[in-house]
Amino acid sequence: MEKYTDYSDFFADFRYTVFMEKMSFSPLREQMCEIARLIWERRLTNAYGGNFAARAGESAFLATPSMMAEEKHCRLEPGDLLLVGFDGAVLEGSGRLSRETGMHADLLKAFPSVGAVIHAHPASCMVFAAAERAIPSVTEATEKQGEAGLAKFAPMCTPEMSANVLAYFEERRALTESAPLGCVLPRHGVVVTGKNLNNAYAMLELIETDAYCALRLGRL
Q1: What angle separates helix 101-110 from helix 159-171, to the nearest 10 degrees?
Q2: In three state form, how does the secondary structure of the chain look?
Q3: What does the alpha-carbon distance between residue 81 and residue 65 come to, in Å, rounded to a whole number?
Q4: For residues 185 and 198, what is the distance between their CA atoms, to the nearest angstrom?
Q5: Among 100, 11, 18, 17, residue whose Cα is nearest residue 63
Q6: What domains sit in the chain, N to C, each tagged with a CATH number?
Q7: pTM of this prediction?
Q8: Residue 116 burial (C-beta neighbours within 10 Å; 0-12, 13-18, 19+)
């Protein structure tokens, strides 16, 4: 009891520990909550959108819930994450799936080496998305990947948008399977893939840095 100020704190901590032990993939859930916090605090998405998913075993993935940014400002709890089968069925959790969950499922199914997919609206990247332009590689960190190219336009949250994103990564299959990769969704935002969640998050930071530098260099 030394670290607790009273019994209410002790029992709150105890209930949280028991709750976490009952959930599957608890360490991954904690990591996803931390990534969500970073995405918000570092202006890598805005209050209108953003969502991501991480592979959880061979036939399922953990996905962020609908309205993650608008309603929760990316302050997620582990229980907010939804365990989803590749058939789209919610296996664990009671929240609503984002309408873009299918896009994440398509990429994770198509590329077994991809462990995480992040869709976001970073501040500098959004200038390129609004202009419907690729983000050039202007830093050494993205030389291997090259530019974050432009996916074909389709209205947001539609099957056509998911198909266009999948086609973009399929056209770059060798690179997608070996390294993190990003693309621009015209007038919408960006999508990045990675071998794991940290890898995908790093790619998100890298293309936002490229976008910022390109804008300062007059490269739009």
Answers
A1: 30
A2: CCCCCCHHHHHHHHHHHHHHHHCCCHHHHHHHHHHHHHHHHCCCCCCCCCEEEEECCCCEEEECECCCCCCCCCCCCHHHCEEEECCCCEEECCCCECCCHHHHHHHHHHCCCCCEEEEECCHHHHHHHHHCCCECCCCHHHCCCCCEEECCCCCCCCHHHHHHHHHHHHHCHHHHHHCCEEEEECCCEEEEEECCHHHHHHHHHHHHHHHHHHHHCCCC
A3: 6
A4: 22
A5: 100
A6: 7-216 (3.40.225.10)
A7: 0.89
A8: buried
CA dihedral 27, 30, 34, 40 (to 10 degrees): 130
How many other CB atoms are found less than 10 A from the CB of residue 70?
Answer: 13
Other C-beta atoms lying within 10 Å of the C-beta of residue 56:
21
Residue 10 CB partners (closer than 8 Å, separation 6+): 1, 4
pLDDT one digit per residue (tens) for the chain, 220 residues: 455 455 555 434 434 443 445 689 999 999 999 999 999 999 999 998 899 999 999 899 999 999 998 888 999 999 999 999 999 999 999 889 999 999 999 999 999 999 999 999 999 999 999 999 999 999 999 999 999 999 999 999 999 999 999 999 999 999 999 999 999 999 999 999 999 999 999 999 999 999 999 999 999 9
Which amino acid, one-letter code, is at 60?
Answer: A
